[in-house]
Design goal:
By secondary structure, the protein is an alpha/beta fold. The chain folds into two domains: about 170 residues, VC0802-like; about 220 residues, HUPs (Rossmann fold, 3-Layer(aba) Sandwich). Helix content is about 35%, strand content about 20%. Strands 1, 2, 3, 4, 5, 6, 7, 8 and 9 form a nine-stranded mixed β-sheet that branches. Helix 4 links the parallel strand 5 and strand 6. It is elongated, with a radius of gyration of 27 Å. The structure holds adenosine-5'-triphosphate and magnesium ion.
Length: about 400
């Protein structure tokens, strides 16, 4: 028995099974996402039933397909399936071969009869197949905690046999929850926040503020690399790069040092809000976590998010740094996040930023700036790039 003997991968849908009337759009989105994630396997074909999707392998290796399928949100689990004729001898024979190829000492057969005219009841199938496996192998039956489970699904024209069940990533299919403008720095937190948004079914567009020449080309490349690392979960990600230097210099000129971060972040949020509204985003998302740094106190958050009309979502708000780091290691963004390139915030960081900014002071300092003019200038020169799994990055400025 080798991997290429398998005919199908059977995909079980996750939480969306419970979502009555939106079900169809959920399934269609999931199907689209699965096809995009697996685009490189050109032989695959797809067929869906009420609660499952069958991927026909047509010779593709199920192990390679599974590695990518495991990243697609909305899948609860999936199994490799072997197909044989709906005849008991063929079923017993195939089930034995599949069980034999697995590692373990005990097994259990779980048969389901979708084709009600099949001449044996489920329990009779269980016993016949188990008997054959006992005769042909050294495996023992354990109905409570078997090492190997042999699932058999008898249909009219064919029978599926499965011996593994691979856990999917759960969550909702990316895209069913609308779109958010994700503020992506080069740090550890925002890629994790982006991943968590995607997991809840929200598609993200990235917005990154770069301060050339104070920030380097490498620091921008790092942001592109982080975006690319998130494409297993959302196969095409729009990255908007904002050239932020003029605004930062203007702020540093007129705003007292302890308030520069507050004012700078209000500009970031204003720009994210404007671009988000123009590109059909329903929210802004950030990697802010409560209490980590001066701009991340509740006082600061209140003053900073007062400038947006879109809601600001903070998926890692209550996480400890260690929890965020664990997640970033799991999704493999950590190694890139810790590369030591300057970020626009680190360059202009004041000695003592205020943790309790006052809105009236902020507004007074901002009154010395041409807010609209500065924002419009930034928005007129956004660099847009689509980063995809396929590594074809094309630019466009259609928005
Ligand atoms: P991160 O690890 O995500 O950089 P952080 O703990 O370093 O977060 P800050 O630098 O204060 O915290 O940034 C808080 C959030 O603001 C970030 O998570 C990100 O969402 C946003 N942000 C900060 N800098 C930028 C930037 N240059 N471009 C886009 N978003 C940014
Ligand atoms: Mg940061």
């Amino acid at each position: 028995m080798s991997n290429t003997d398998y005919h199908y991968i059977l995909v079980r849908y996750g939480e969306l099974s419970t979502k009555g009337k939106n079900r169809l759009s959920f399934i269609n989105q999931l199907k689209r996402n699965i096809k995009e994630a697996l685009f490189q396997f050109s032989a695959l074909t797809y067929q869906e039933t009420y609660d499952r999707l069958y991927i026909t392998l047509n010779g593709e290796n199920p192990a390679d397909v599974s590695a990518l399928l495991q990243n697609v949100f909305g899948i609860i689990s999936f199994s490799w399936a072997y197909q044989c004729p709906s005849e008991i001898d063929a079923i017993a024979e195939a089930a034995t071969r599949l069980a034999k190829a697995e590692s373990g000492e005990t097994f259990k057969v779980i048969a389901r009869r979708h084709y009600k005219l099949f001449p044996m009841l489920s329990d009779e199938i269980n016993r016949a197949v188990a008997g054959h496996i006992l005769d042909e192998t050294s495996l023992r039956v354990d109905v409570h905690q078997p090492d190997i489970k042999v699932w058999i699904e008898v249909r009219q024209d064919k029978t599926f046999i499965m011996v593994n069940m691979i856990k999917g990533s759960g969550g909702y299919p990316v895209g069913i929850g609308g779109k958010a403008m994700m503020m992506l720095s080069g740090g550890i937190d925002s890629p994790v926040a982006a991943y968590l948004m995607m997991k809840r079914g929200v598609k993200v567009d990235m917005i990154h503020f770069a301060s050339m020449p104070y920030t380097s080309a490498q620091s921008l490349q790092k942001v592109k690399d982080l975006t690319k690392l998130l494409t297993p979960y959302q196969s095409s990600i729009r990255l908007n790069v904002i050239h932020f230097t003029t605004i930062q210099l203007a702020i540093n000129k007129v705003v007292p040092e302890s308030y520069t971060i507050t004012v700078m972040r209000r500009f970031m949020f204003r720009i994210a809000d404007r671009l988000g509204l123009d590109t059909r985003c329903l929210a802004i998302a950030t990697g802010e976590s409560l209490g980590q740094v001066a701009s991340q106190t509740l006082d600061s958050m209140r003053v900073i998010s007062a400038v947006t009309s879109l809601p600001v979502l903070r998926p890692v708000l209550t996480y400890d740094k260690n929890e965020i780091i664990d997640c970033s290691k799991r999704i493999r963004t950590y190694e890139t996040s810790i590369l030591p390139f300057e970020d626009c915030c680190t360059i202009f960081t004041p000695q003592k930023p205020t943790t309790k900014p006052h809105l009236n002071k902020v507004e007074f300092y901002e009154s010395k700036l041409d807010i609209e003019g500065l924002i419009n200038e930034c928005l007129s020169q956004v660099d847009v790039e689509y980063i995809t799994q396929k590594q074809t990055a094309e630019t466009d400025d259609l928005f």
